[in-house]
Amino acid sequence: MSLDPYRIFDPEPKLRALAYELYEQVQNLPIISPHGHVEPRLLAENPPFPDPTELILIPDHYIYRLLYSQGIPLEKLGIPTLDGTPVETDHRKIWQLFADHYHLFAGTPTGYWLAHEFSAVFGIHEKLNSTNAQSIYDQLSACLAQPEFRPRALFERFNIEVLTTTDSPSDDLIYHQQIRASGWPGRVIPCFRPDALFEIAKPTWRQELAALEQAVGNSISTFGDFITALEKRRAYFKTLGAVSTDQGIETAYTQKLSQNEIDSIFQHALKGNVTPQEAQLFIAHMLMEMARMSIEDGLVMQIHVGVLRDHNRQVYSRFGANKGCDIPIPTEFTRNLYELLNAYGNDPRLTLVVFTADETNYARELAPLAGHYPAMRLGAAWWFHDSFQGMLRFREMMTETASIYNTVGFTDDTRAFCSIPARHDLARRVDATFLARLVGRHLIDMEDASRMIRALAYDLPQKVYKLN
Q1: Are 65 and 74 in contact (CB under 8 A)?
Q2: CA dist., res. 465 & res. 468, Å (int)
Q3: pTM for this one?
Q4: pLDDT tens digits for 264-285?
Q5: Taking the domains of the chain in order of start, what are their residue ranges?
Q6: 50-149 classified as CATH 1.10.2020.10
Q7: Would the CA dihedral through 60, 157, 304, 404 be positive or negative?
Q8: pLDDT tens across 312-347, in order?
Q9: What CATH code would you report for 13-49+151-464?
């Protein structure tokens, strides 16, 4: 297994040469990761990674969702259950099962990331298979025992300039405090993610509200109390470097409710008798509130739209959320964002970054919206489209209407720490491929392309997320 230096690029010699020339200009630029799910504890405590299975397979739903689709139970992959019932704990046995099915990942982005991870990060140049599974496990284990493979050392080796985590509003951010107090110069910052507090119809909402009350040190009995508490927590997140908020929502529907309407819905939620329509209206109103708050405190507002979470209820009830069974759904933006954009979209103090898993929307609505409203930017090709073909389609459908300068560059959105350089390298190669094609057609020249490739790899995420 070797990583061809021309991978991803078009095979036609002239385009391949142009793409490689562009890629070389950004290959070694620092990585900015403005949205992701790496646990801050890793970088606060800096422990050695336990073993290859714990590092590579168990945290990564991209891997085990495909294995599950082939009939392999999650129990056999060591995925923890909510009720603590037994799962496989022999990590060598789990690794062997993974290796036996490694061929399934050929042609997928996960297969590409894993090849890069094994080769570039760990120096393994054999393709994983049933025969060599245990010897590769031993090689990986030997690496993980060395100081240079601890999280902070890898952070520095990966040339990560900024890494953003995802955190609940009630989180005390103790690990972020520890990172700062340690004197280590790595920049790891939180992101304010209030989804659970806005989903008032869920049985866990009162528990989430109680955690928020504890975090702010007072009771919350009115909607006004709720808003004040959120504003306090946003301010606290900023003291530890936060530059953004994020929400995962099924639809982008926004609506400003009257004070009486929102107060009434909040009281119904406190009593546990909120209707589905009220729950939807509450989120619609809270999107308006979040935009208002972002104008006031400067935090970038991100929304991730268009996924039906936890579609497989059997998996959700046994293993919980984020276990690879979230499915994209059609999404509308022009009408749904109408109220928010007309209220706040012309205000230069707001930055609204919109992601979607519905790629049919790119050219139809999102590119025209971002190509007009000063506040709106397009998030990168997300989740199921975080791939060679997916990112290329994103650029092809967005650029002519929105311009690359109304996008945010690349966002890796990963839980798998060691895949970060692979994901950013793939994005830089895809962008080089796309721009080389424009140069080859004489739509832009190499001066334009050089400026654009740097913007996509580094300048845009730094600027949009206010990281300089």
Answers
A1: no
A2: 9
A3: 0.96
A4: 999 999 999 999 999 999 999 9
A5: 13-49+151-464, 50-149
A6: yes
A7: negative
A8: 999 999 999 989 999 999 999 999 999 999 999 999
A9: 3.20.20.140
